[in-house]
Design brief:
This protein is an all-alpha fold and about 425 residues long. The protein has 22 helices and no strands. Helices cover about 75% and strands about 0% of the residues. Helix 17 (about 320-335) runs antiparallel to helix 18.
Length: about 425
């Protein structure tokens, strides 16, 4: 077999293995290692490339951001700051049709700015927001759909693990990726709120709900006490990166330290909770870095196979321009989103398309935002919508089926697609803060 044939078979094999339930880094690493061995008929070369992949990936100083931001997000979650910001948002939207849903989106956007995790957002707001909406007679399908849809904000609003993974694959600045995610993340949040408002006007029966008449306006003192901690963290992390005072690693360390101080000052952090946060940080960090190592040898295998160059030649011979390349890329992302998780999609697809995007003079930072949002749509689509599974598992409510969660999330997946198309057509929206 030719290297091209081996490369194509390896990509298909990786997707099949992941879909069958194999651990993603194992599928990426083993298939890539064997493919290199077969292509060059040299076991020592495959071993040497594996060593280089490990040395060039997880040993990078930049990846210190992974445990630091992960630890900060876990401390924020365990300290109950997500509940605080939700209560403030709920107070502001309480008399609007679908107001609790809007409050959930707003709270998720703020919460995402300090956790960077869709799974954490889905878990927290499933416990906080869904019972509240059901209490006020909201449609259960709408209630879980709002939480599922808004939970994906954690992967686009910085800090985000997916942006970190993309920055490695595309060799871009983590700080630049973080800043580029701010405007698209806010656009998505406002689009969700506008969608909920429109639903309340056009399909009030689908939204359901009754006015939360027992809610009172919070005093300025209450609002300040509940929002000040999160606002301080956002100012420290994003403000430090944006002004250039801190690198992403330094911002992560500062944010983790400030989060811990706030949690201790509020007496929301026990020794047991602190230890659990450390253990979970270790687990998450090890998983992400293992994934990055496997992605590194996968990229080298693609290069040896010549697959990206072959793809470029095919598209060039067919005279496909920007529109068709982006259409093919988007369709591929949406298709794989129904089968694979976000990290897998980024690691498998991006190395194939980067050689096509770079010669066109397009920004790889903009391309990263498009990639993450496109892959994130998969979190809301069956059969592998991770956020939807997390919500179902967290609720433990027999009245709400997994089908209800997926159907409720469908309108928000469509909104994501619309925002994605806008961002593709107007790259300046992703790069505004960087210019």
């Amino acid at each position: 077999m030719t290297p091209i044939e081996i490369g194509l078979m390896s990509v298909v094999a990786i997707i099949v293995l992941i879909y069958l339930g194999f651990y993603i880094p194992i599928a990426l690493g083993v298939v890539s290692f064997v493919s290199i061995w077969l292509m060059r008929d040299n076991f020592d070369l495959a071993m040497n490339l594996l060593k280089i992949a490990i040395g060039d990936s997880v040993m990078e100083y930049t990846f210190a951001t992974v445990p630091l931001f992960t630890f900060m997000g876990l401390i924020v979650s365990k300290a109950g700051m997500g509940t605080d910001i939700y209560q403030v948002m709920n107070s502001g939207f309480r008399k609007v049709k679908g107001g609790i849903g809007m409050a959930t989106v707003g709270a998720n956007a703020v919460f995402a700015a300090v956790t960077g995790s869709s799974i954490a957002s889905a878990s927290v707001f499933s416990k906080v927001s869904v019972p509240q909406m059901l209490r006020y007679d909201y449609n259960p399908r709408f209630a879980v759909g709002v939480v599922a849809g808004s939970s994906v904000l954690g992967m686009i609003i910085p800090p985000s693990a997916m942006l970190i993974i993309y920055s490695f694959v595309a060799e871009q600045s983590v700080g630049a990726m973080f800043l580029a995610g701010v405007v698209p993340g806010l656009m998505l949040a406002f689009a969700y709120i506008a969608t909920i408002w429109s639903m309340g006007k056009i399909a009030p029966n689908y939204v359901g709900g009754r006015p939360a008449s027992d809610y009172e306006w919070m005093s300025f003192k209450e609002i300040f006490s509940k929002t000040a901690p999160l606002c301080t963290l956002i100012l420290v992390v994003l403000g430090g990166i944006y002004t250039g005072w801190m690198t992403p690693v330094e911002a992560g360390a500062s944010g983790a330290a400030v989060a811990l101080i706030i949690a201790l000052a509020r007496r929301k952090m026990s020794l047991h909770a602190f230890w659990q946060a450390l253990i979970e940080t270790g687990h998450i960090t090890a998983a992400i870095l293992f994934l990055i190592t496997a992605a590194s040898i996968y990229s080298r295998m693609l290069g040896l196979a010549g697959l990206p160059n072959e793809l470029s030649e095919i598209l060039a011979n067919n005279q496909l321009g920007f529109f068709w390349i982006m259409t093919i890329y988007l369709c591929l992302m949406l298709f794989l989103g129904t089968l694979l998780d976000t990290a897998s999609i980024i690691l498998i697809v991006v190395p194939l398309f980067l050689p096509l995007i770079e010669p066109m003079g397009l920004s790889l930072i903009w391309f990263g935002i498009i990639t993450v949002i496109g892959a994130e749509i998969g979190l809301l689509t069956p059969p592998l919508g991770i956020s939807c599974f997390v919500i179902k598992a967290t609720l433990e409510d027999d009245r709400i089926s997994l089908k209800d969660v997926f159907m409720g999330a469908l309108p928000f997946a469509f909104v994501m697609l619309v925002v994605l198309i806008i961002l593709i057509n107007y790259p300046i929206l992703s790069l505004a803060i960087l210019n």
